[in-house]
Amino acid sequence: MRGLDDTDREILRLLLADARRPFSDIAEQVDLSAPAVSDRVDRLSEMGVIRGFTVDVDRSLLHSGVPVLVEIDAEPGRAGAIRDALADVEAVEHVFRTADSRVTLTATVPQSAVPSFLDSHLDFEDVQRYDVRLVADTEWTPGLGTADFAPDCAECGNTVDEEGVRSTLDGDPYYFCCGSCEARFVEQYETLKEEA
Amino acid sequence: MRGLDDTDREILRLLLADARRPFSDIAEQVDLSAPAVSDRVDRLSEMGVIRGFTVDVDRSLLHSGVPVLVEIDAEPGRAGAIRDALADVEAVEHVFRTADSRVTLTATVPQSAVPSFLDSHLDFEDVQRYDVRLVADTEWTPGLGTADFAPDCAECGNTVDEEGVRSTLDGDPYYFCCGSCEARFVEQYETLKEEA
DNA sequence: CGTGAAAGGCATTAGCC
DNA sequence: GGCTAATGCCTTTCACG
């Protein structure tokens, strides 16, 4: 399994800065041909490193409501359910689940709905406490650092190294530290899918 | 000053989902010609609604460290300074400042640096309390809702309506509720620029 | 993994309504 | 503002190393 090299990182950095920059342009910067860049972008997409291409929209110009940041302390084991319920809400943009059963999210909601917008989306059985804060400003700096490719094994959670394998299940890439983890995962995956 | 119509919103929505989708494709969806879509995208860029095009990178696959979410309670009036100091840190991706002197940020830091990475970037005189949490997972759903275009006047802060004006200063768009606000702002801008 | 050449698709311009 | 037609660029495919 291949990781990322400096060229991959440079391509990512250039695309982060401007995702519509022509590949031929990028090719020149990284000393490759345009098809080579195209191939690498494809590979990064297959790997799941590139999830997609988007627009950076300045939401501060689009008053569809008030930006809020919500902190939710979940009942033990219920943070995942809360995250799933909220991620699908149209007004919600970011959802962060932290290891300590806390879910933090940002959303833009109509002024009048600030106190109540969670009511219809949250099962309060799952919630210990929550807090809605008004967002004053937001910064987003899509950087990369010296990022290296080192996914977690989907089965056991260990870091996957060069020995690892990738499987594509229903179009999504999964990584495994070894063949037996892969086999175990795929088997369970198939079973769950059959049941559904 | 023109705002956003349904077609603009639909274009934004389509681009949010896939910024490389061909304009001819988008054109078909919104019942326009490709050049018309191109013109609208240009206009949205000039307005500052579209800040740029980027890649959605899955940072959970790029272990340059551990994803953390940090909550900082600032001393009164110091939240802005904290935000500015942290926004420039390479490892930091999102910074949210809420109205109650709280700064919430996400970052990816080397395992060993989790407890200490803030030390070099934070003036602890400004901090009442802070908390570093490990992020288990992240969701990002760039949605739009029924977003309408209503920027704040750069001079007085009031919402700008159709009567408002746009000025472009050094390539960046600024909005004003009226001509006198614009004049005042531009004058101050020029002065500050001369001094620098 | 990479290249260069060719083909096909796409954004953009120009002229017009 | 929008359209159609035409131009020129960009991505992608292909054959090859």
From TrEMBL, chains A, B:
Query: Is Nucleus found in the keyword set?
Result: no
Name the Gene Ontology molecular function terms of this record.
Answer: sequence-specific DNA binding
Domain (HTH asnC-type) ranges: 4-67
PROSITE patterns in the record: HTH_ASNC_2 (PS50956)
- Pfam families reported for this sequence: HTH_24, TRASH_HVO_1752_C
| Signal peptide range in chain numbering | none
Domain of life from the UniProt record: Archaea
Q: Which InterPro entries match?
A: ArsR-like_HTH, AsnC-type_HTH_dom, HTH-Siroheme_Decarb, TRASH_dom, TRASH_HVO_1752, Tscrpt_reg_AsnC-like, WH-like_DNA-bd_sf, WH_DNA-bd_sf
Q: Which UniProt keywords apply?
A: DNA-binding, Transcription, Transcription regulation
**Know the name of this protein?**
AsnC family transcriptional regulator
**What is the organism field in this record?**
Haloarcula nitratireducens
